[in-house]
Amino acid sequence: MSDDQNTPHDPLHLLALNAALRAENENLHAVVAALKRALYGARSEKQVTPETQLPLALDDLSATPVEPAKLPKPANSNRPERRPATRNIGGLPAHLPRVDITIEPERKVCPCCQGKLHVIGEDVSEMLDVVPAILRVKRIHRPRYGCRSCEGAVVQAKAPPRPVDGGMPTIDLLVHIAVMKFAWHLPLHRQVKMLKGQGIDLDVSTLVHWISRLAWWCKPLH
């Protein structure tokens, strides 16, 4: 059924309906105004309720707002709290060795009177540097001594024991390979590539054998 069929045609009925709609409209405007005063108006402002407004329970709106309760953290949350990032701002660690480099001016003659200059102070700044790991060859010399009177007598020092029987690595190289693998998680195949970059061609199985020998030497320490 359309709205035209529901609309009354009696003039008196229409006037009464119009008056009711006006009253409802004014009441709604009054409610909106009261809500705005309660939410945004000053607390000392006196609220005036029009006679045509229906009584509303607005005491809760004018009261001090209650802060929402904080939700408890979930019991199964094992995520660690994020700590602020720390940066080494300022001096570098004191235990690092220092290499002093002095940069002298090109001329030590006064630009005004051409007199000789003398040091009155200096500015010192620090930069973090690195010395790349280098491979070197230890050459062990064992001179042989003989007697001029007894030609058959020959004296020579014994050769030092090798960490790997018949192998070429020193104990320092074995420790370096083990630290790079187990402390810094650098795989052996990458270390093989690094050694090859310096002209040492080895196989991964060779490094595995070296580490096993190092473990054998360290076994009494456990």
Protein traits:
single chain, 222 residues, mainly alpha, two-stranded antiparallel ribbon, 2 strands, 33% helix, 3% strand, elongated
Short description:
With 222 residues, the protein is mainly alpha-helical.
Plain-language structure description:
It is a single chain. By secondary structure, the protein is mainly α. Among the domains are: 56 residues, no CATH class; 60 residues. Helices cover 33% and strands 3% of the residues. The protein is built from 6 helices and 2 strands. It has a two-stranded antiparallel sheet with strand order 1-2. Strand 1 and strand 2 form a beta hairpin. Helix 4 packs across helix 6. The model has no long low-confidence stretch (mean pLDDT 82).
Counted beta strands: 2
**How much helix, percentage-wise, in residues?**
25-40%
Would you tell me the structural class of the helices and strands?
Answer: mainly alpha
The number of helical elements comes to 6
Give, in spatial order, the strands making up the sheet with the most strands.
1-2
Shape: elongated
What is the rounded distance between the termini? 97 Å
Rg on CA atoms, Å: 47 Å
Question: What is the mean pLDDT?
Answer: 82
Strand content: under 5%
Low-confidence stretches: none
- Characterize the biggest β-sheet: 2 strands, antiparallel
SSE sequence, one letter per element: HHHEEHHH
